[in-house]
Design brief:
The chain is mostly helical. 65% of the residues lie in helices and 2% in strands. It contains nine helices and two strands; from the N terminus they run ααββααααααα. It has helices spanning 22-44, 49-57, 71-82, 86-102, 106-130, 152-168, 175-198, 204-224, 226-235; strands spanning 60-61, 66-67. A two-stranded antiparallel ribbon has the order 1-2. The radius of gyration is 21 Å and the shape is globular.
C-alpha cells in the first residue's frame, strides 16, 4: 500500500461520564478536616510529643542517626518528596490543566485550577497561624526553611494529586475506574507526606495534618467550587462546548 494514500483516521475524544457527587465530596472533606482538627488538638495540648519523637527515630540508625536501610532508599525518598515540591507539583498541575482543556473538559480544568490556587492560600494561612518550628531530633537530610505545621509538601501534594484524580475521573463511567484513580492519587500523596518524616524535616503530626488538610480541601473544593467553576467555564469557553 502506498504510504502516501493511507486512510485517514478520526480521533474521538472521550466523553464525560462522571459528575462529582457534591454531597459525598462534602462528607469526605468534612471527615478529613475533623481528623485535621484532632491532630491540631493533640499538638497544641502537647499530647503528640512521644509519637512524634518515636516516628522520627524509627527510621534512623547508628550513632549519627542516619536513614536506616540500603543506600538506594535515600534516593527513593528524595525522588518521592520531589513529587510534592514546588517545581514538579506545579509542572504536573499546569500539564493537567492543559490536558483537560484539550480534552474539552473546561469545567474540570477550571475547578482543578481554582482548587490548587485556593489550596495554596489555605495552607499558607494555616502555617502562619500555628508557627511550629522544624524538628531537631534527627539530622535533616535536605535543606528546608519555613514553618513546620502543617507540612506544605503533604498539604499541597494531596490537593494537586487528589484534585487531579477527581478531574480526570470525569472521563470514566465505571465506578471501579474512578475509585482506582482517586485511591492511587491518595496513596501517592501519602507517600510524599511520609517521605518528609524519613528526611527528618517534619514531625509525623505535621505530615498527617498536612495530608488530611490537603485531602479535605480537595474534596471540599470539589463541592463548594463546582458551581463557580461551571459558570466560569460556560461563560468563557476556550474550546467548543461539549455535553455534560
Amino acid at each position: 500500500m502506498d504510504p502516501h494514500h493511507l486512510p485517514a483516521e478520526t480521533l474521538h475524544l472521550p466523553e464525560r461520564g462522571f459528575a462529582i457527587d457534591r454531597r459525598r465530596a462534602l462528607l469526605a472533606g468534612g471527615a478529613c478536616w475533623l481528623g485535621f482538627a484532632l491532630v491540631v488538638w493533640l499538638v497544641a495540648g502537647g499530647h503528640a510529643a512521644g509519637l512524634d519523637r518515636m516516628g522520627l527515630l524509627s527510621a534512623r540508625t547508628g550513632e549519627e542517626l542516619g536513614l536506616a536501610g540500603p543506600t538506594r532508599l535515600h534516593e527513593i525518598v528524595r525522588d518521592t518528596t520531589a513529587l510534592g515540591g514546588v517545581f514538579l507539583r506545579n509542572l504536573f498541575a499546569i500539564g493537567a490543566v492543559v490536558a483537560l482543556l484539550f480534552l474539552r473538559l473546561r469545567r474540570e480544568a477550571v475547578l482543578f485550577a481554582m482548587t490548587v490556587i485556593a489550596g495554596w492560600v489555605v495552607n499558607s494561612g494555616l502555617k502562619l497561624l500555628v508557627g511550629r518550628e522544624r524538628p531537631q531530633i534527627v539530622p535533616h537530610l535536605m535543606e528546608v526553611g519555613g514553618q513546620s505545621f502543617p507540612s506544605g509538601h503533604s498539604f499541597n501534594a494531596a490537593v494537586v494529586y487528589i484534585a487531579m484524580a477527581l478531574a480526570f475521573a470525569a472521563m470514566s463511567r465505571r465506578q471501579a475506574v474512578r475509585v482506582t484513580v482517586i485511591a492511587a492519587a491518595m496513596l501517592i500523596s501519602a507517600m510524599v507526606a511520609w517521605s518528609r518524616v524519613l528526611l527528618g524535616v517534619h514531625f509525623p503530626t505535621d505530615v498527617v495534618a498536612g495530608w488530611l488538610g490537603g485531602a479535605g480541601w480537595a474534596f471540599l473544593a470539589a463541592a463548594l467550587l463546582y458551581r463557580p467553576a461551571k459558570a466560569a467555564a460556560d461563560s468563557h469557553p476556550l474550546f467548543p462546548p461539549r455535553s455534560s
